[in-house]
């Protein structure tokens, strides 16, 4: 019988050795297919069960599942209202890694136009069912690293939450950040969240690569943006990091192309606290909040 854990370790080691030999282009298609197959498989096994990873024997209460989505979207929209230039009810938003639509539904109640992209055909199939009552949502399968079918300067806002923490290679994460800035209109905002507790530079299966401020500084030096927020919830044991970037206005000809993630001050702001407190569906997030993890975002 195939030992899946051993195979995953072997594939991770192979990926690391090929990366060191500078043949990223040759292996990326294999990695993307592997990721697509993984999330298609998880979605077939349970439509909602992989979200916040249910404890054994648990199934999501549908009302509670929707409620957690509303709470997270409220936190996103608080930041959009703080820094954005377009009233949300008149704005468009794109979600990277929309999954089955937990955030799409509440986003569609706040925004005029909502567009979700995902690597998994199965997830998008389930998202179409979950969001079928909302006419302002569009779904699209993407290639797992770009938004190449989305035009430049076409959305007011972009968001990706609970996604980058599952992407196993930092190059893919950087690609998505650059793509988000490309498809945003001048002055538009990109909010992304990830678990700032990772220790491995290359992830495996559902555990994503480590994202550090130094990596972001090194790899995003060729694009222009303004950092509006780097924050962490002081009550969050998982150490989720939330970052908000703004695309410069067309008339902004500043010679300073980017802010520095290393130098920008991290603030404290609510993200996950309060989302699961009264949720009776037992998720692994309940357990994970009991033991504080180390923040690795500022590691070298």
Quick recap:
The protein has 300 residues and is α/β, with parallel strands linked by helices. 34% of the residues lie in helices and 17% in strands.
Description:
- There is one protein chain.
- The chain is 34% helix and 17% strand.
- The chain is an alpha/beta fold and 300 residues long.
- It has a single domain (4-15, 24-288), classed as Rossmann fold (3-Layer(aba) Sandwich).
- The protein has an eight-stranded mixed sheet.
- Helix 2 packs across helix 5.
- It is globular.
How many domains make up the coordinates?
1
Strand content: 15-25%
Class of secondary structure makeup:
alpha/beta
Major sheet size, sense and barrel closure: 8 strands, mixed
Tally of helical runs: 8
Q: Determine and state the CATH class.
A: Alpha Beta
- The CATH homologous superfamily is named Vaccinia Virus protein VP39
Query: Are there runs of 5+ residues with pLDDT below 50, and where?
Result: 6-27
Shape: globular
Set out the fold topology:
Layout: H1 4-20, H2 24-45, H3 62-83, E1 92-96, H4 104-108, E2 113-118, H5 121-130, E3 137-141, E4 155-160, H6 170-183, E5 184-195, H7 213-219, E6 226-232, E7 240-246, E8 267-268, H8 284-288
Parallel strand pairs: 1-2, 1-4, 2-3, 4-5, 6-8
Antiparallel strand pairs: 5-7, 6-7
Quick tags:
300 residues, alpha/beta, 8 strands, Rossmann fold, eight-stranded mixed beta sheet, 34% helix, globular
């Amino acid at each position: 019988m195939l030992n899946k854990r051993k195979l995953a370790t072997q594939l991770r080691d192979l990926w690391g050795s090929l990366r060191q030999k500078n043949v990223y282009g040759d292996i990326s298609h294999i990695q993307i297919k592997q990721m697509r197959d993984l999330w298609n498989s998880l979605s077939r096994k349970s439509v909602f069960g992989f979200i916040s990873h249910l404890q054994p024997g648990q199934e999501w209460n549908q009302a509670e599942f929707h409620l957690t989505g509303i709470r997270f979207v409220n936190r996103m929209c608080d930041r959009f209202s703080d820094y954005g230039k377009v009233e949300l009810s008149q704005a468009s938003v794109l979600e990277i890694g929309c999954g089955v639509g937990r955030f799409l539904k509440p986003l569609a109640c706040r925004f005029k136009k909502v567009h979700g992209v995902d690597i998994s055909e199965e997830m998008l199939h389930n998202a179409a069912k979950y969001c079928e009552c909302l006419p302002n949502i569009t779904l699209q399968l993407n290639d797992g690293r770009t938004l190449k079918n989305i035009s430049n300067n076409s959305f007011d806002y972009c968001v990706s939450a609970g996604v980058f923490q599952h992407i196993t290679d930092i190059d893919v994460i950087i690609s998505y950040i650059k793509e988000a800035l490309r498809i945003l209109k001048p002055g538009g905002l990109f909010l992304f969240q990830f678990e700032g507790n990772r220790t491995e530079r290359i992830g495996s299966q559902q555990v994503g690569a480590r994202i550090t401020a130094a990596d972001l500084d090194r790899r995003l030096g060729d694009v222009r943006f303004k950092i509006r927020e780097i924050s962490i919830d002081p009550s969050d044991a998982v150490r989720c990091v939330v970052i908000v970037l703004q695309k410069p206005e067309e008339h902004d000809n500043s010679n300073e192309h980017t802010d520095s993630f290393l130098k920008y001050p991290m603030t404290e702001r609510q993200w996950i606290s309060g989302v699961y407190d009264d949720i009776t569906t037992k998720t692994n997030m309940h357990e994970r909040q009991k033991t504080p993890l180390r923040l690795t975002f500022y590691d070298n």
